[in-house]
Design goal:
The chain has 226 residues and is α/β, with parallel strands linked by helices. Helices cover 51% and strands 12% of the residues. It has helices at residues 25-37, 49-59, 75-85, 100-109, 121-132, 140-153, 165-175, 180-187, 191-205, 210-220; strands spanning 17-21, 41-46, 63-67, 90-95, 113-116, 137-138. Helix 7 (165-175) packs across helix 10 (210-220) and helix 8 (180-187) packs across helix 9 (191-205).
Length: 226
């Protein structure tokens, strides 16, 4: 580029700045190559949770793809600290284990997406797209783990009604994987109304976001995962 030339603003996936955090160099290099080919801008790589925090502060990524099992600082704790320091940064947790406890810890830490490492590159890309737009992403393996745990513990078949019938409808559609526009379309209401319902749901269920709300509602037997 000639001196003084101005770069065109990034658009689409190129505008999503990614930070990769994984202690395996081969995995980082594979993700960098694959996600770069799909149009994302990979701005940095971290080999542990502590490095991820430092690089996130320096590079200001939009999304961090965060492994769980890492030295010095694991991915769940790194996510928790990152959300305190930079709450605007989205985190997609990537784990080898479709484990309910890890899922729960990650949700409580503030992660926005949850994937297992047997997913495809396209599924990772779709999850990044979703969280960048303010949605959440949950891999089928983790969803199955959560559902199995709920069934094992035994969900209450007649939970005390904490939310309205309309809020239950909204939350069930979210649990089915619908985005805000899709919920609005299916229920014939505006997106603003959907967001108002979600805000009310979060308050009633003491949830930070839609994934926490779905997890809590499944445990209470209010909604069901298909």
């Amino acid at each position: 580029m000639a001196t003084g030339a101005m770069a065109a603003p990034a658009t689409g996936r190129a505008a999503i700045r990614l930070l990769l955090a994984d202690d395996h160099r081969m995995i980082r290099e594979g993700l960098r190559r694959s996600l770069g080919e799909l149009g994302f801008s990979v701005v940095g790589e971290a080999r542990n949770g502590a490095d991820a925090l430092d690089l996130a502060a320096a590079l200001r990524p939009d999304v961090v793809l965060m492994d769980v099992t890492m030295p010095e600082l694991d991915g769940v704790e790194a996510t928790r600290q990152l959300k305190v320091r930079q709450p605007e940064v989205k985190v997609v947790v990537l784990t080898m284990h479709a484990d309910h406890d890890i899922l729960t810890q990650a949700i409580r830490a503030g992660a926005n997406g949850y994937l297992v490492k047997d997913c495809s590159t396209d599924e990772i890309a779709q999850a990044i797209d979703a969280v960048a737009l303010g949605e959440t992403a949950l891999s089928p393996g983790l969803a199955a783990s959560m559902l199995a745990e709920v069934r094992r513990q035994g969900a209450n078949p007649t939970p005390e009604r904490l939310i309205t019938t309309r809020e239950e409808e909204v939350l069930q559609l979210i649990a089915d994987g619908c985005s805000t526009p899709e919920v609005a379309e299916q229920l014939f209401i505006s997106q603003k109304t959907v967001k108002n319902h979600l805000a009310s749901i979060y308050q009633k269920l003491d949830a930070r976001d839609r994934t926490q709300a779905v997890l809590q509602a499944v445990r209470m037997g209010i909604v069901h995962l298909n």
